[in-house]
């Protein structure tokens, strides 16, 4: 274990990758606490307090890392990207021009 930390401090490439990972984690944690403009935080807190402990919103908040209860910028995570990708893949079979573009890459 001691050798791992020594390598982390001495090898420049490993150190830069580790610091980049810490930076990205920091950005994600800060972004999960920045609320979306126009959302009333008091009303949102009262909504979450009124829910039972086993409601679907509490589970969604748990799996989003607490970002859903803050209604933060990063609460959506990768979901919209995956949904858009599935929709585009389905539309490729419906429209010939999209199919031609998909074959080109």
TrEMBL record:
<keyword id="KW-0813">Transport</keyword>
<keyword id="KW-0472">Membrane</keyword>
<dbReference type="InterPro" id="IPR002208">
    <property type="entry name" value="SecY/SEC61-alpha"/>
</dbReference>
<comment type="similarity">
    <text>Belongs to the SecY/SEC61-alpha family.</text>
</comment>
<feature type="transmembrane region" description="Helical">
    <location>
        <begin position="18"/>
        <end position="36"/>
    </location>
</feature>
<feature type="transmembrane region" description="Helical">
    <location>
        <begin position="71"/>
        <end position="95"/>
    </location>
</feature>
<dbReference type="Pfam" id="PF00344">
    <property type="entry name" value="SecY"/>
</dbReference>
<dbReference type="GO" id="GO:0016020">
    <property type="term" value="C:membrane"/>
</dbReference>
<keyword id="KW-0653">Protein transport</keyword>
<dbReference type="InterPro" id="IPR030659">
    <property type="entry name" value="SecY_CS"/>
</dbReference>
<keyword id="KW-1133">Transmembrane helix</keyword>
<keyword id="KW-0811">Translocation</keyword>
<dbReference type="InterPro" id="IPR023201">
    <property type="entry name" value="SecY_dom_sf"/>
</dbReference>
<protein>
    <submittedName>
        <fullName>Protein translocase subunit secY</fullName>
    </submittedName>
</protein>
<keyword id="KW-0812">Transmembrane</keyword>
<dbReference type="GO" id="GO:0015031">
    <property type="term" value="P:protein transport"/>
</dbReference>
